[in-house]
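Listing 4. Sequential folding, example run.
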Amino acid sequence: MHLNLATRDLDASVAFYSTLLASDPLKKLDDYALFVTEQPALELALDFSRDAQAGSGQHFGLVVDEVDAVDAQISRLQSAGYRVDVEREETCCYANQTKVWATDPDGRRWETYVVHEDAEERSAAETTCCQSEETIFGGRQCCA
């Protein structure tokens, strides 16, 4: 998969994605960085843009095979000083999952998750499933 994301702060974004992907960029220039990873199979390009804005109502995800990989992601993100939201065995998007959420410097929400099993309901009432960082940490109700 290839993603190209614009960012207002390339250095902060490189630091975030180096932590999220557990990888250094293959290329790093003044206005561009390129990550190429095998797990997940991803080519992520970051372009500097003073006008970069994260899209509303979207998020991105990295699926992993086991809870230990989610726990490792939690440790990496927290050790680097990023705020995380952890959900353990919660129902979200018709699946019971364990996941960690983090937000990049431009406001894009990323989840790293493992699916335990499919579920009949979209999400449990008490979950923070797919909510924005502002909603989760700001105390407001989602979808009101």
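-- end of first protein; second protein begins --
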Amino acid sequence: MQLNVLDPEVLADARAHPGKHPGIVVRVAGIYAYFDDLPDSVKQEIIDKVKPPIIPYTHPQTHRMR
């Protein structure tokens, strides 16, 4: 699967509203396809791959000098 950088919000909107973004083309397994023509499971997989990972913030501990 090869993805160009896309806003995951646009892809989610395209999934929710088929036909609203007819020009989105993705490459899946070496084949180009219109996003609207893909099954919902494949659309969601693409959206998940484009989303940035959520990394929880942990506050660095303060070390006391003795």
